[in-house]
Write a structure and sequence with these properties.
Layout lengths: L1 H10 L2 H22 L13 H21 L4 H4 L1 H18 L10 E3 L2 E3 L1 H17 L9 H20 L3 H5 L4 H7 L4 H19 L4 E2 L2 E2 H20 L4 H22 L6 H23 L2 H26 L3 H10 L11 H12 L11 H4 L11 H33 L4 H25 L17 H23 L1
Antiparallel strand pairs: 1-2, 3-4
Helix pairs in contact: 1-20, 2-3, 2-18, 3-20, 5-6, 5-7, 6-7, 6-19, 6-20, 9-19, 10-11, 10-14, 11-13, 11-14, 12-13, 13-14, 16-18, 18-19, 19-20
């Protein structure tokens, strides 16, 4: 037993643990800077957030030892059970959690508050890895793909019912894992196109030229270009490209000449060309008995339907505060005292840090509490103000190196279970990093997700610690075998 434990600690990837320690320590100092109060200078006081975070860090070390001491097959054997327990907690949270800041995501157990959504990430990663690592698994079969999506989206539905949209969006990171494991890149293309079409249409939703809505026209042109390129990649003849270009040029030129006499909606011209192209694709699909042309036509028609649904979804599905956040992010509204307040104050704090920053505990924007949630979701603004551009860049580089390390570890795994779980871990950290920093800089809508190991909170720190060290335990098995 002693020899086995000694070999275990030798087989752990200490480079990743060093990254973890550096981020946790840097995060604690950032929380100190964000939570510092002039009348309470004791950073170790358990009544203040720095002291509490230090307590969570100490307990995390205990969790790490427990994880590393578990049997080597524990997570493989009990993956589904862990997932089931967390799903039950998520469902219980919907009905039992009190409403805090508009959401029901925290279970209150006396003095302790837990957010099950933070633990659902590693539980979902375990369940997905368990299912996809079964013998002779093929992701491209319809049944396997649907079951995998159900495993991913079941916690998403539960979290959405808690009104925690930000935490639910994190699960989109699993599509990177599916892509690594054989999912067609066309699925990612569809997702990218959906975001591109939505943003473009919303950005130019109020712009018109004559009676032509610019947003809808631009999206129509994008659909036409992408559909044409997909058709060419599917093996269409060269004359097809010339024909489409000729028809498009003739149609828009004719529309322009007619517009000199009567108003013309060029959006309808673009849509007509797409429908004509779809007719050609369906003809080719029947003529050559090739489904790929029909699928391309289906993509074009679905894109048009999606375009028509954007306005309805935005006005009737999204919550009012979500609508405002998107409009502020796209520059459609300027709400410096409302939805845009957090981002504006965050930008001011980061900009005031300059190149080298104001120094530890010397930030003015954060000390005067101008930035709401500055020790949780907006913790990066504290880094920018106190450590400046250099410190902020080092934090981003540290995260980048950490994620690259996780990918390298995932690639060297000897089992499908460990590899898939490892890619899930890397993808989740990558999503958090991009969205959180993008949110603080005003590049993405404010959706409220923490920066791993930096944002204050026991649930967040423990959730990420579980996520990471389960993978390190799986990785250590390489050298134990």
């Amino acid at each position: 037993m002693y020899t086995r434990k000694r070999n275990l600690w030798k087989s752990i990837d200490w480079i990743t643990i060093l990254f973890y320690a550096m981020m946790v320590i840097a995060g604690w100092f950032s929380i100190c800077g964000a939570s510092y109060e002039f009348d309470n200078t004791n950073l170790f006081n358990l009544a203040a957030r720095p002291g509490l975070q230090l307590l969570w860090i100490g307990l995390s070390v205990g969790l790490i030892f427990i994880i590393m001491m578990l049997d080597k097959d524990f997570f493989d054997i009990f993956a589904y059970l862990i997932y089931f327990i967390i799903i039950l907690l998520l469902i219980a949270t919907i009905f039992l959690a009190p409403e805090i800041k508009g959401s029901r995501s925290w279970l209150v157990l006396g003095p302790i508050r837990l957010q099950p959504a933070e633990f659902a990430k590693f539980a979902t990663a375990l369940a997905v890895a368990k299912f996809m690592s079964q013998y002779n698994f093929k992701l491209n079969t319809f049944k396997n793909f649907i079951i995998t999506l159900l495993l991913i989206f079941l916690p998403v539905i539960c979290i959405l019912l808690q009104k925690e949209t930000g935490s639910a969006l994190v699960y989109l990171a699993f599509f990177l894992v599916l892509y690594r494991e054989g999912m067609s890149g066309k699925v990612l293309l569809i997702g990218f196109c959906a975001v591109l079409f939505f943003v473009t249409n919303m950005k130019f939703s109020e712009a018109t030229v004559g009676i032509t809505p610019i947003g809808e026209l631009l999206v129509t042109i994008m659909i036409l270009v992408i559909t044409t390129l997909l058709t060419l990649s599917a093996g269409a003849k060269k004359y097809f490209m010339y024909s489409i270009c000729g028809i498009t040029a003739f149609a828009f030129l004719s529309g322009y000449l007619i517009s000199l006499l009567i108003p013309v909606n060029f959006f309808w011209i673009g849509m007509g060309i797409i429908l004509l192209l779809c007719c050609y694709l369906f003809y080719e699909a029947i003529h050559s008995w090739t489904m790929k042309y029909a699928l391309i036509a289906f993509f074009a028609l679905s894109s048009l339907l999606f375009l028509f649904s954007i306005e309805y979804v935005f006005n009737n599905v999204l919550e009012p505060h979500q609508q405002v956040r998107i409009k502020v992010s796209l520059g459609l509204e300027d709400d410096p005292s409302g939805a845009g307040y957090n981002v504006n104050q965050s930008k001011i704090a980061i900009g005031s840090g300059g190149m080298t920053g104001k120094g530890f505990l010397n930030g003015t924007q954060t000390k005067l509490k101008y930035v709401p949630e500055q020790d949780t979701d907006f913790i990066f603004c504290t880094v920018g103000e106190e450590q400046g551009f250099i410190g902020s860049s080092l934090v981003i580089i540290l995260f980048g190196a950490f994620i690259v390390r996780l990918i390298l570890l995932a690639e060297r795994q000897e089992t499908d279970f460990a590899r898939i779980y490892g890619y899930s871990v890397a993808s989740i950290f990558l999503f958090h990093l991009i969205i959180n920093i993008g949110m603080v800089l005003g590049l993405t809508p404010v959706i409220g997700i923490p920066l791993p190991f930096f944002s204050y909170g026991g649930s967040s720190l423990w959730g990420f610690t579980f996520l990471l060290f389960i993978f390190l335990r799986l990785d250590s098995l390489r050298k134990e075998r």
